[in-house]
Amino acid sequence: MKRNTLTYAILAAMLLGIVAGEAVRRLYPDPADIQAFAGNISLLSDVFMRLIKSIIAPLVFSSLVVGIAKLGDLKAIGRLGGKTLFYFLAASLTSLTLGLILVNLFQPGLHMHLPLPAESAHPDLAKNHFDLKSFLHHVVPQNLIEAMGQNEILQIVVFSMFFGVAAATTGDRGEPLIAALDGVGHVMLRVTSYVMLLAPLAVFGAAAGVIAQKGLGVLATYGLLIGEFYLALLMLWGLLVLFGFLVMGRRTGTLLSRLRGPFLLAFSTASSEAAFPQTLQELERFGCPNRIASFVLPLGYSFNLDGSMMYMTFAALFIAQAYGIPLALEAQITMLLTLMLTSKGIAGVPRASLVVIAGALSLFDIPEAGLLLLLPIDHFLDMGRSATNVLGNAVATAVMSKWEGQLRH
What is the C-alpha to C-alpha distance for residues 211 and 406, in angstroms, rounded to an integer? Predict the structure, then answer.
């Protein structure tokens, strides 16, 4: 299926899913029937997501090892790594700062006027607290197979970097292994193209299930927050595209055209991880060399989740506003920096950001139960932040390729 055809098929499937979900809700109002429908229709998206996740680990490992090995000397690896991390830090601060300014300007939570809850935390969310020890355990692998089995992307990235550097410095003995992993990477990309044929079915199932359970009314109830958040994302998209234009000129338009498929996939599935294989494929077609794309993009999925970080700023301050908890500017800046540090390494999958937000709320005496305010619409917010993550990492990869003087025409 051609790229444009698949894109339109995904968009049509999302619209049909919304219609189908609302139809089921009206024709079968019994909650048991709706729950049964949502459970059954979700099998479509479950199968697709399981297939996509089965691709992530071997693709990241093979592409990153080969990319590092092809860079050759350690100086090149260090130079590219330094530039990439500096860019990620600047992009993270930009996203968080923009979110901080806009949520204070809009103040969407003030309309809630909620009393402080008797229980300060929801048990399922409070236990997922990020501290230094758990963060290091999340970063440093103890078993590669375990990390691959659990799709711990950051752990895979760390091991792959060591493995790639070792392969690059081994000489002739490492070349057959590098060639084999290069073949694995190309095979996984072909597998991706096959799995992507199921994307419209998965999107239909996800949209129908959510609308059937929550109805169209949830969009109106939280319309203010959703609208303001997406306005903030539009502004962030504008900044990302503007920076890309300053570096790459008119080729930025070509990049955006190629990103339509991955962007829409991440938006409709609320998972930037689901769009990773296709994003890597489109970046290489755009002209980014494999050795740079396979190095920068996986790192971006751990260190450059621009949409997720803006959402975390919005969510934390929205909850504080809803409960009437004033936060001084100094406290808000501290929260911003805390979110920036604890967000590194979170998975690009639905609702992963809630874990980090729960940890930040407890540090500032904001009721973690406030996260329950966001759960009804989290899926719709997650769609926007996931798509933003894809755009941010794709622009970062293209910019790094340009700065290294290796962006092909």
Answer: 45
pLDDT tens digit string along 245-268?
999 999 999 999 999 999 998 998
Domain CATH for 73: 1.10.3860.10
Give the pLDDT confidence of 122-138 residue by residue, as tens digits: 444 444 444 567 667 76
The CA R_g of the chain, rounded to the nearest whole Å, is: 21
Residue 51: count other Cβ atoms within 10 Å of its Cβ: 17
Domain that holds residue 386: 3-403
Q: Does 409 map to a domain?
A: no
Please report whether residue 193 resides in a domain.
yes
Q: List C-alpha distances in Å: 106 to 109, 196, 305, 311.
A: 9, 39, 23, 14
* Cβ contact 114:321 at 8 Å: no
Look at residue 367 in the predicted model and tell me its pLDDT: 80
Three-state secondary structure string covering 306-323: HHHHHHHHHHHHHHHHHC
